[in-house]
Write a structure and sequence with these properties.
This protein is an all-alpha fold. It has a single domain, classed as Ferritin, core subunit, four-helix bundle (Ferritin), CATH 1.20.1260. Helices cover 60% and strands 2% of the residues. Strands 1-2 form a two-stranded antiparallel ribbon. Helix 3 crosses helix 7. The longest helix has 29 residues. The protein is globular and about 55 Å long. It starts with a helix and ends with a strand.
């Protein structure tokens, strides 16, 4: 089932995971505790490994086969990963929200009609459970602390929330829509976003944090090919 949109999704997932891994790695020596630093290093290694597992699939698509090169600089990743996380709160927000958004997409590929996705997606989802637990733990720790820690994590969440939700595309997104129609991905763009928002509602409520609005998203700044805000 080698439709062109499959290659687009592979590129977006692989490049976001590669770049997220680099951003995690930058906190392997600057995290607030030794345990957190160790976790940052482990998650960085896992994200880079996920990217390496996905990239070889591109060799099946002649138009983008050269992108399978692991030495190629990633280009299709969210703008929130352009620069290093300035604070630990930004790290936690990306871990708890954006990493989970990527996993929401990957989880919808576990039963994909495109066979090469299935085994890889299942393995990635299993490995992401640790990332989810880490993000949720730190989100509760900062959110329930009150005062400055509560304020900075809320601000970090608010900054990345719009682009994180845009990752799934608009309801009529041509890439995810075509993949859903072809049976490559289990659900539509709108359903992916709804699943993610429901998960975040529970997560943020337990952390004593407000769920930002999902009603108005900046689609006028949306780059559909690179799946990022301009």
């Amino acid at each position: 089932m080698s439709i062109p949109e499959t290659a687009d999704l592979i590129l977006v997932l692989a490049d976001n995971k590669h770049q997220l891994g680099l951003r995690y790695a930058e906190w392997a020596t600057g995290a607030p505790t030794l345990e957190a630093a160790t976790a940052a290093a482990a998650m960085a290694q896992a994200e880079l490994g996920h990217a390496r597992a996905l990239l070889p699939l591109l060799r099946e698509f002649p138009a983008v086969a050269q992108a399978a090169d692991e030495e190629r600089p990633p280009t299709r990743f969210a703008a929130l990963l352009d620069a290093p996380f300035a604070t630990w709160a930004e790290f936690v927000a990306a871990n708890a929200l954006f990493d989970s958004a990527l996993t929401t997409i990957v989880a919808a590929l576990v039963e994909s009609g495109y066979a090469p996705f299935r085994g890889r997606a299942k393995k990635i989802v299993e490995e992401e459970r640790y990332h989810t637990a880490h993000g949720a733990g730190w989100l509760r720790r900062l959110g329930q602390a009150g005062g400055a820690p509560h304020m900075v994590i809320e601000e970090a969440i608010a900054r990345i929330w719009p682009e994180t939700l845009c990752l799934f595309g608009p309801d009529d997104d041509p890439t995810i829509g075509a993949l859903h129609y072809a049976g490559v991905i289990a659900v539509s763009p709108g359903e992916l976003r709804e699943r993610f928002v429901a998960q975040m509602h529970d997560l943020l409520t337990r952390a004593n944090l407000e769920l930002p609005s999902a009603d108005t998203l900046p689609w006028n700044r949306w780059d559909a090919l690179r799946r990022r805000l301009t």
